[in-house]
Write a structure and sequence with these properties.
Number of domains of chain B: 1
Order of helices and strands of chain B: EEEHEEHEHHHHEHEHEEHH
Shape of chain B: globular
Number of domains of chain A: 2
Bound molecules: adenosine-5'-diphosphate, magnesium ion
CATH topology of chain B: Rossmann fold
Number of strands of chain A: 0
Shape of chain A: globular
Largest sheet of chain B: 6 strands, mixed
Strand order of the largest sheet of chain B: 6-7-8-3-9-10
CATH superfamily of chain B: P-loop containing nucleotide triphosphate hydrolases
CATH architecture of chain B: 3-Layer(aba) Sandwich
Oligomer: heterodimer
Distance between the termini of chain B: 42 Å
Number of helices of chain B: 10
Number of strands of chain B: 10
CATH class of chain B: Alpha Beta
Chain lengths: 266, 245
């Protein structure tokens, strides 16, 4: 018999603290010196997620398009800020590049999903827009941060190559084409590999959650398929928008490579 | 005007990263010259050379190319003014891919026929190497020749050289510089070569500009400069690597 729900209550959660206790024991025994970090991490995940649960409950009660749009807007702002903070290199206007990239992909991909795939009624229903919007923005953030880092690495590595192309008469866009291609490949190939192996080794988190919460695996699978396609498209689109803005920052109006931006920062 | 200079530098200064790299540079280059720019390491030679094809711009001052502001058409300028760096850049792929690198944006180059490519290779004395040869397998000297052939396909009027032979042995250096000088005569090129090796340069250059800490301390034929002690003051003596043979 398939149970309808496996409800996890607070007592169960306290039992799961035993995992942490066991990890602590191992850390001590092996003198790994991670006790304090682990305790902080344990506490933070507990508090943050619990708070988020209450916040989400409140969000899910709000039924207004303006509320939903403002919320998504704030999520994109925070993600752009986070992306800028993670960036190890100096990229002028990186915040704006992230913002435009995430906004563009959120509008197109979230819009398509809400309006044409899930036919959510009304489209601003928080039950769909918040989790899916969060996935798109979060995934876009992770992917573009990595790609931007990689892109700057490619520029450093190819500085002479880029200047040689400029010297032969190339526009900046053509001079960095190979660097852009390499960094987009590096971002997308793991996504494609994930699509190749999904379900063979482990079940994706969303699907696992849905099945545990009592949803028919066949339906959970359909969601997962949609999510994977959505992830890939988000990554492709957000990276292309971001790089289109970012590569320009590395050139002057006179089509000169701004080599000072490529010096290794201390 | 036949006597208009090809390049004119007017009070050019360059600062970067808080350093004064070039100060108040004034000179002109005329068509057909072989100009050597000599100076110790860090004197500002590369910074100066990069201004001739606008890979770098002065912080102050003005540069004219054929009496026009050098930045009035940068892509056109760069096709007219080819550059060879100290370490030649060779792209992955074969020799043909390398020669056609500019074909991505230039239809004339994209449509170059194989016999024209072979001709470009002959011009740099590599006519015996197949177009399908992997470019990364070439020796250092051959890579520099390939880079030269790639530049020649743009039909430049000016060739800039930034210590193009300093990683090659003296014999190879000379054969490449001989080639450049021969091309200067047959193709009526203007050559501007940066080096710290005055013995190599005096074989070819009719005129030398000596840079020291970003300033021009000498400008004229080698013989005239030998009489003043400019080379000595600029720290250029005592590090000769090319034997006079
Ligand atoms: N973009 C830059 N930022 C800071 N310093 C620079 C920059 N370009 C060159 N320099 C410095 O200016 C000096 C001259 O450099 P360069 O023109 O390469 O000299 P050379 O080719 O004669 O060795 C060097 O000390 C170099 O470190
Ligand atoms: Mg130099």
């Amino acid at each position: 018999m398939r149970p309808d729900f496996y409800v996890l209550n607070w007592n169960d959660l306290i039992v799961s603290l035993a995992f942490i206790a066991f990890s602590l024991f191992l850390i001590k025994k092996w003198k790994l010196g991670l006790e304090q970090t682990l305790l902080v991490g344990t506490l933070r995940s507990f508090v943050q997620l619990t708070l988020m649960g209450y916040v989400l409950t409140w969000f899910f009660d709000q039924q207004h398009w303006a509320f939903m749009l403002s919320l998504l807007f704030i999520m994109i702002l925070i993600a752009s800020y986070e992306g800028t903070r993670r960036q190890k290199n100096e990229i002028p206007h990186f915040f704006s590049a992230m913002f435009v990239a995430l906004l563009g992909s959120a509008i197109l991909i979230l819009g398509t999903i809400l309006l044409f795939i899930l036919d959510v009624e009304p489209w601003y229903s928080p039950y769909a827009a918040i989790p899916i919007g969060g996935m798109i923005i979060g995934n876009g953030l992770n992917s573009t941060s990595l790609t931007a880092n990689r892109f700057v690495g490619e520029l450093r590595h190819r500085e002479k190559e880029i200047e040689t192309l400029l010297a032969l008469g190339a526009t900046p866009k053509l001079a960095v084409y190979d660097a852009m291609k390499a960094s987009i490949h590096a971002a997308l190939i793991p996504n494609i590999n994930a699509m190749m192996t999904v379900g063979l080794v482990q079940l994706p988190g969303v699907m696992t959650g849905q099945i545990l919460a009592g949803i028919d695996p066949i339906i959970a699978v359909r969601y997962q398929i949609m999510i994977m396609y959505m992830w890939f498209t988000t990554a492709t689109m957000a990276n292309i928008i971001m790089l289109t803005i970012v590569y320009r920052q590395f050139f002057t109006k006179k089509m000169q490579l701004r080599r000072e931006l490529l010096r290794e920062q201390a | 005007m036949p006597n208009d200079p090809l390049f004119q530098f007017i009070d050019v200064s360059y600062e970067a990263g808080g350093n004064k790299i070039l100060s108040r540079i004034n000179f002109a280059v005329h068509k057909g010259e072989f100009l050597a720019v000599l100076g110790a390491s860090g004197a500002g030679k590369s910074s100066l050379l990069r201004m001739f094809n606008s890979l770098t711009s002065p912080s102050q001052g003005q540069i004219n190319f054929r009496t026009q502001n050098i930045d009035s058409d940068i892509q056109c300028l760069r096709k007219n003014v080819g550059i060879l760096f100290q370490n030649p850049v060779v792209f992955s792929g074969n020799i043909r891919d390398n020669l056609l690198a500019a074909g991505r944006w230039d239809n004339n180059i994209a449509q170059t026929l194989d016999h024209e490519l072979t001709h470009a290779l002959e011009q740099v004395e590599m006519g015996n190497i197949e177009l399908t040869h992997n470019a990364k397998d070439l020796s250092g000297g051959e890579q520099q020749r390939l880079a030269l052939a790639r530049t020649l396909l743009n039909h430049p009027q000016v060739l800039l050289l930034d210590e193009p032979t300093s990683n090659l042995d003296p014999k190879l250096s000379r054969s490449i510089m001989d080639l450049v000088d021969k091309l200067r005569k047959t193709l009526k090129l203007t050559v501007i070569a940066v080096s710290h090796d005055h013995l190599l340069m005096r074989r070819y250059a009719g005129r030398v500009i000596v840079l020291s800490r970003g300033e021009i301390v000498g400008d004229g034929p080698f013989k005239a400069l030998d009489r003043s002690a400019v080379f000595e003051k600029a720290g250029l003596l005592g590090n000769e690597v090319n034997d006079e043979t």
